[in-house]
# Entry
Amino acid sequence: MFDDGDVIYAIAPALDSTKADMFVGIGGAPEGVVSAVALKCLGGDMQAKLLPSGEEERERCAAMGLADPHAVLTIDRLVRSDECIFSATGITDGMLLKGVRNRSGALATHTLFLNGTDRKAHFLETLHDPERVRP
# Structure
């Protein structure tokens, strides 16, 4: 249904360049943690809950220190420090990032870079020397 993936939609409400106010969805735990890092970098907020599907997943939660696998996980529980970074580079065109393009024989990439200490979104366009890029 979504071409850009859960992470981009999860962080969209924290970016002024989008018209999103809130994101509600379901997805995997890794996508949730990556989204939490990006949101923390932007000064955003989120809450998450795990939904273990069986005893094996509940045991895995316990092994990771989650005594109650159904507890609400705040952004500060998911990302414990402001010293965090997030980076995403577009492969194909999407809501926030342009895909890889050919610019006069060089490859151009578009990257979103965030860090938790300055709370700003940095959009970078990089030209790559075609001699140094392997096919």
Observations:
- Helices lie at 6-11, 29-42, 55-63, 75-78.
- The chain has a mean pLDDT of 88.
- Residues 29-42 form the longest helix (14 residues).
- The radius of gyration is 18 Å.
